[in-house]
Specification:
The complex is a heterodimer of chains A (about 325) and B (about 700). With about 325 residues, chain A is of the alpha/beta class. Chain A is built from 13 helices and eleven strands. The radius of gyration of chain A is 20 Å and the shape is globular. Helices cover about 45% and strands about 10% of the residues of chain B. In chain B, the strands form three sheets. An eight-stranded mixed β-sheet of chain B has the order 3-12-4-5-11-10-9-7, with helices on one face. The chains are: A alpha/beta (about 325), B alpha/beta (about 700).
Chain lengths: ~325, ~700
């Protein structure tokens, strides 16, 4: 599959998503890049910004099976992965698949479930399989998780552990729409748009799961110059020595950044990565993989600030500047 | 007794008591100051020696002369081996202007920038008006911002990585556009098309940087540059993107840097370079400002260099005096410090302020034997000199020579001297009277020009003398070439001794106070303008100058509460509510024991009883609160502890509130405190600590 075909498909996917979801172009773009890069996405934003709508639309456009899990404090791991249930008729246990057995999983408000339940997704996200009662069951391909969390509420929430955060390729901040976009949303609703009834919209299916897998495999062939590998390593490496960060990003972040940059290059119609790809994706890739020093946190410094500072310090490959 | 009265007394002592004094006696050969008159020397060879060093008007036939200098031309000897080009210089008529006292401006040889045209002047005024409006708007916005203290700006910690100076020097790169293009072509000619493409692209970026459209920094990518161009020159963005794509294909895409690719890149780059990249407005503004500045500069440009070596200058006179044996020195110190170490003092026309203030000192010095030579100038002379310089009018009269009256025949040798008389200045010899009413001897007239006095001399008891000339023309370089002018000057100064000081504009320049400095330097208008500028800047910047339009509100309380809240959030996230309760409980119990009047001991029960009495709350309830706030023994299972903490967080919060209420109300003179209501938050930080959040309670916890 050549780059031009890939780009064309991605453009069509964007266009279809844009029919249902107005605005949030950057979130959509990053999510598509994550899908191509076989990564998972954590969406953080206030309620009502279209996170669930994005996932449902994405599922329809990509032609992937999608399921939703609403995480609550009483959710158990077996509610996510499934479990063995005794079948009286058959006289034996049979495995009932949980909602994780899908291609596109929306984990809504993932920080509302206790850590035990959150960790049930760990294996699924990393290994793309779940082990229940000693039996490892693979998840469908392609498989990706789009989790959401609300940044406003901390009462009754369970912050995701670093190990799980590290499994997400990107953490995206979903912001409120602009006035123009909000007006367009209202106009859309006036025209009869109903987010609960997406089927009526007639959203076109642009790809199939098999095509998606092929697209994912194709990006592995995107060329990455040695200087860009050094660039990525330099950026991630500096997070480990930044004065405002308690802990820096792991090599998983470097790999994630590399994969994301390859996917972004394809999205732009290139078969090679350029520094812009890396620089554009660095904040989304790193912000959730680092921790702030207490004094920095008290002073209002964010991880994005730290990443921005690092990006200003790191020399771009092939620059003509002194 | 003042110096002036001393001189008058001396004058009176030398008078013959009411009758006009006889002709002034020749000056003594020595002065009472001990300085010996210099022996006579032949002056013309010395003049020749001075002119051998070369003066510009003696070598350059195109030397421009001012009106005053050209007046000497009729008096110069023709030809004159000492100054060969002088004749030709004089033939050129007047080609320079005098500016001030010591400035010469030669319009014909000075390149002047024409005044800017009307559009540029108008543009300059528009820019100035816009700048003033921007400053006023900024001040107004600052004032409005002061009235909205709740608006807090988030402190952003952004620091640039310090650059190693040595590394910066080592990384000096080529920034000249044309050189980069040349380098690109050279690399292409050598077959290194990769480097050629890089250099061609670098040339384009440098051009864009010079036009202020992009900023080339090590952390900025090509995408950043394209976006910058897109913002400012949207029509050029696609073309730049094409170049960038081509370049990046070579740099990162593994594409072979071929000649064809280089030519394509170069063609695109050259096309972009030929575009008018800079916005016309900034260019025009810069041009307008530059022209205006050049015009302003040119209008005040004065060729002051070489005045001393011009015909009007004095460097030749000083050299002549040195050759003769004088030790001439320009006096910088104030004349208030004039003492007998100076044997002769020459007052030039520019030395006015310090002289006027120190006439008494000069009088004392003359009384002690000093020789004063006043070379003209617009000044009123003190009565002890008895001479007034009058008349300063232009005249077209011919130039009569300077003649020596018979009475001065012994003072001055027979000589022929002449100075131009473009301006007629004469000395009026006044008749002064002594204290007893008798007339004092008038000064001796040394030189006469036509019917007017040109030089007079008054001698004093003690050997001092005061010589007054009508002008300073004898003390110019040009005068030395004319007849016996140089010899005349020497003869006037010779009796005074060798230690000659010349008081001019710089004399007494050292001011006694800052106000004096400002006054002398006429700096008041400039300083007022500077003060106005500072006031404007003061109003604009505000806080940096103290309390101008009102200090920005420092919301310390809010910041502290946010700080406390942040700490509470940290505690909450780390599930440290129980820990915080124990700490606060211990603190509160100690305070209670200090403040309460405990008669039955300081046990927990005693405290609880006192608090129950004071607050009216049941003893059991108070006791429960105190007990729950005490540190508990950890059972060693961190996980269980953590779970317990999570489960009891709401109760811990309620306990903390109770403790705070008991401490506040129970220890204040026995007032009864209301029972704490679940919804009331007495201390936001405590809420944050135990709930690990914003303090808002969930429904389930509210019920608990």
């Amino acid at each position: 599959m050549n780059v031009a075909v890939l780009k064309d498909k991605l453009d069509r996917i964007r266009a279809e998503i844009g029919r249902a979801l107005i605005g949030q172009e950057e979130v959509v773009e990053h999510t598509l890049i994550a899908v191509l890069a076989r990564g998972h996405v954590l969406l953080e934003g206030a309620p009502g910004l279209g996170k669930t709508l994005l996932v449902r639309t994405l599922g329809k456009v990509l032609g992937c099976e999608n399921k939703r899990i609403q995480f609550t404090p009483d959710l158990m791991p077996s509610d996510v992965t499934g479990g063995n249930v005794f079948n009286q008729q058959r006289g034996g246990f049979e495995f009932l698949r949980g909602p994780v057995f899908t291609q596109l999983l929306l984990a809504d408000e993932i920080n509302r479930a206790p850590a035990k339940t959150q960790s049930s997704l760990l294996e699924a996200m990393q290994e793309r399989s779940v082990t229940i009662d000693g039996t490892t069951r693979p998840l469908p391909e392609p498989f990706f998780v789009i989790a959401t969390q609300n940044p406003l509420e901390s009462q009754g929430t369970y912050p995701l552990p670093e190990a799980q955060l590290d499994r997400f390729l990107f953490k995206l901040d979903v912001r409120h729409p602009t006035t123009a976009n909000e007006k367009a949303i209202l106009a859309s609703h006036l025209a009869g748009f109903d987010a609960a009834a997406l089927d009526r919209m007639g959203l076109g299916r642009v790809t199939t799961p098999e095509e998606l897998i092929a697209m994912q495999n194709a990006i592995r062939g995107v060329r990455v110059d040695d200087s860009l590998l050094e660039y990525i390593a330099d950026i991630v490496g500096r997070t480990r020595s930044h004065r405002s960060l308690y802990f820096g990003a792991s090599p998983r972040a470097s790999i994630a950044l590399l994969a994301g940059a390859q996917a972004r290059a394809v999205s732009a119609g290139r078969d090679f990565v350029i520094p812009d790809d890396v620089k554009a994706l660095a904040p989304a890739t790193i912000r959730h993989r680092v921790g702030l020093q207490p004094d920095a946190e008290i002073e209002g410094v964010s991880t994005d600030d730290c990443v921005a500072e690092i990006l200003r310090e790191v020399r771009v490959p092939a620059t003509i500047a002194a | 007794m003042s110096g002036a009265s001393c001189l008058l007394f001396a004058l009176a002592a030398t008078s013959t008591g009411g009758a006009p004094s006889p002709a002034p006696t020749p000056p003594p050969a020595t002065t009472a100051a001990g300085a010996e008159a210099l022996p006579r020397k032949d002056v013309p060879p010395l003049v020749k020696q001075v002119y051998q060093k070369g003066f510009p008007y003696c070598a350059d036939a195109n030397y421009p002369l001012t009106h005053d200098e050209h007046d000497w031309c009729a008096l110069f000897p023709k030809p004159d081996d000492r100054c060969p080009a002088l004749a030709k210089v004089c033939n050129r008529e007047v080609t320079a202007e005098m500016v001030g006292q010591h400035g010469r401006e030669s319009p014909n040889t000075t390149i002047t920038v024409p005044a800017p045209a009307l559009p540029f002047r108008a543009l300059l005024w528009i820019v100035l008006a816009a700048a003033a409006a921007a400053i006023i708007y900024s001040i107004a916005r600052h004032v409005v911002a002061q009235r909205a203290p709740d608006h807090q700006e988030v402190d952003v910690i952004t620091t640039e990585a310090p650059e190693d100076p040595a590394a910066a020097i080592a990384r000096q790169v080529e920034t000249d556009v044309q050189r980069l293009l040349a380098r690109a072509r050279a690399a292409a000619a050598a077959g290194d098309f990769g480097t050629a493409v890089d250099d061609a692209y670098a040339a384009l970026l440098r051009k864009l940087e010079g036009a202020g459209i992009v900023t080339v920094e090590s952390h900025r990518t090509n995408g950043d540059h394209v976006r910058d161009v897109g913002r400012q020159l949207p029509t050029l963005r696609p073309r730049l993107q094409t170049v960038v794509t081509n370049v990046e294909q070579v740099q990162f895409g593994g594409a072979a840097p071929t000649e064809g690719r280089f030519r394509s890149v170069l063609a695109d780059v050259l096309g972009l370079l030929s575009e008018k990249l800079a916005g016309w407005l900034p260019f025009v503004v810069k041009l307008g400002l530059g022209l205006a500045l050049a015009g302003a500069v040119s209008s005040c440009h004065v060729n002051r260099e070489g005045w001393d070596r011009s015909p009007s200058g004095r460097s030749g006179v000083v050299e002549l005096l040195e050759h003769y044996g004088f030790t001439p020195r320009e006096r910088l110190a104030s004349l208030s410090k004039l003492d007998t170490s100076v044997s002769a003092l020459l007052l030039l026309p520019g030395a006015t302020d310090d002289v006027d203030a120190n006439w008494p000192v000069i009088a004392n010095w003359v009384a002690e034997g000093g020789t004063l030579l006043v070379a003209g100038g617009k000044r009123s002379l003190p009565s002890w000199i008895g001479v007034t310089i009058v008349g300063d009018k232009a005249t077209a009269a011919t130039t009569p020579p300077l003649t020596i009256p018979k009475e001065a025949g012994e003072r001055l040798p027979k000589l022929k001297a002449v100075v131009p008389s473009r301006r007629e200045v004469e000395l009026a010899v006044s008749v002064s009277r002594s204290d007893d009413g008798s007339e004092e001897a008038p000064p001796a007239i040394l030189l006469v020009r036509g019917k007017a006095n040109y030089a007079v001399e008054r001698t004093y008891e003690g050997g001092g003398r005061a010589i007054v000339l009508a002008d300073d023309l004898l003390l110019t370089n040009a005068s030395l070439l004319v007849d016996d002018n140089a010899r005349l000057l020497i003869e006037l100064l010779r009796p005074g001794g060798p230690k000659l000081e010349i008081a001019g504009e710089l004399t007494g320049l050292v001011s006694k106070s800052p106000i004096d400095s400002v006054k002398r330097g006429r700096l008041a208008p400039a300083m007022l303008q500077l003060l106005l500028l500072i006031l404007l800047f003061f109003a604009h910047k505000g806080a940096f100058f103290g309390l101008p339009i009102g200090d920005p509100n420092v919301v310390k309380r809010r910041r502290f509460s946010e700080h406390a809240r942040a700490i509470g959030l940290l505690y909450g996230r780390n599930r440290a509510g129980r820990h915080a309760l124990e700490l606060y409980g211990s603190y509160a119990l100690e305070r209670m024991r200090e403040r309460l009047n405990l008669t039955g001991g300081k046990s927990l029960l005693a405290v609880a009883e006192e608090l129950a009495t004071r607050t009216g709350r049941p003893l059991g309830e108070v006791m429960r609160v105190l007990v729950e706030s005490r540190p508990v023994k950890r059972e060693g299972d961190p996980e269980r502890e953590r779970l317990l903490q999570e489960a009891n967080s709401a109760r811990d919060l309620a306990t903390m509130r109770d403790i705070a209420s008991l401490l506040q109300h129970g220890t204040q003179g026995g007032s009864q405190s209301p029972a704490p209501s679940p919804g009331r938050q007495t201390q936001p930080s405590l809420v944050a600590i135990t709930t690990g959040g914003t303090g808002e309670r969930s429904g389930s916890q509210r019920q608990a």
